[in-house]
Amino acid sequence: xxxxxxxxxxxxxxxxxxxxxxxxxxxxxxxxxxxxxxxxxxxxxxxxxxxxxxxxxxxxxxxxxxxxxxxxxxxxxxxxxxxxxxxxxxxxxxxxxxxxxxxxxxxxxxxxxxxxxxxxxxxxxxxxxxxxxxxxxxxxxxxxxxxxxxxxxxxxxxxx
Amino acid sequence: xxxxxxxxxxxxxxxxxxxxxxxxxxxxxxxxxxxxxxxxxxxxxxxxxxxxxxxxxxxxxxxxxxxxxxxxxxxxxxxxxxxxxxxxxxxxxxxxxxxxxxxxxxxxxxxxxxxxxxxxxxxxxxxxxxxxxxxxxxxxxxxxxxxxxxxxxxxxxxxxxxxxxxxxxxxxxxxxxxxxxxxxxxxxxxxxxxxxxxxxxxxxxxxxxxxxxxxxxxxxxxxxxxxxxxxxxxxxxxxxxxxxxxxxxxxxxxxxxxxxxxxxxxxxxxxxxxxxxxxxxxxxxxxxxxxxxxxxxxxxxxxxxxxxxxxxxxxxxxxxxxxxxxxxxxxxxxxxxxxx
Lengths: 160, 340
Prior knowledge:
Radius of gyration of chain B: 38 Å
Strand content of chain B: 15-25%
Largest sheet of chain A: 5 strands, parallel
Radius of gyration of chain A: 15 Å
Number of strands of chain A: 5
Distance between the termini of chain B: 87 Å
Oligomer: heterodimer
Shape of chain A: globular
């Protein structure tokens, strides 16, 4: 599976993302501030960067701009509480591949990460008693939503 | 409809030709020499205008303006109009500034709500989908949900309290309250930023003080560096026969400049340095503190502490005594439970 770098200063949220991504079989690295995230993105060349915008030291926009200016073409998924249209436009213009606003559900984020990184849909997910939740949220299990064109990240964010 | 061009009077040709004056009258009747039809496409054909002028009253005629005697009135009216225009512009600007602040406030509250909601949702899903890989992860997910829901409740309570304050609907239930009694909640806030919190137990005089303390500590945690020591101190003081409970919160942040020390209490206001930073905040926390303290008949102010950080001081009258009005420097300390 993919190597994913999560640049997120919120320790709990980073823990939750790491946990879920690792369950899907990804290798996850976490950076707690913009400077560390930028360094690690250059040094480790991950398959995907999940980037928060409000970061200490160097905010997410600066990290993204620096990555693109340095020729790093790694797909970037912005995951942020900043939901204003101006922020979305700015992020996408700077070279982000997707923009997901908080609060998000994990399956939306996972779907966005697969799309951004070009990775195939996660396989071997544990079958649980909560498949009804999955089927509500996962486009792989609810193809009608995809057919209806509701999964465009640039048009619809954050919720399924 | 096309408006006809103004007719030019040939040079030397009189516009008016005098008519015969009535017998016994000094005035002369004047008659327009040409019909209006030439100018207005015949609409006024045949119309004749007559005017008479009494030569004795001719000097009082005002043609093209008012007499100089009314100039002061005109100037006064002009000044009044300009003054009202100026006031209108100021009010309009102020209104726009308030509207902008309120808009920013809504945006900030929205952002503040999103953060705990995100985590509640993420970890609830994690548990629902049984993606926790150990009992430790299961417990941590539950703890995060619990913590974030409390944070959400505190934020909502702040917004409601602020709205009540705006409507002057705050009702106080005065009672003895021990700050240390809710230390666990304060500690939780401090833990989020790896801050060390030392709380000195003290008697305070109102339930609402808990929210005050919570906001002050939360404020100190937000605007100080990670790992800082936050000091919460209390003292009972007496001055001029007034006994007051003084409570202060010290942080190790950059402090608040003298110019900003009044501004921080105003609603929606965030200091420029905070606006540029990535520190979250709604801009009403300290306004809520100010309103609550004011409702108690107390005072709140900001100082610089010995470590160069901010010291936010709240002074409340002790029940049974008149409200204190003394300045901080003139108080005579009779008991102190401050700690760092």
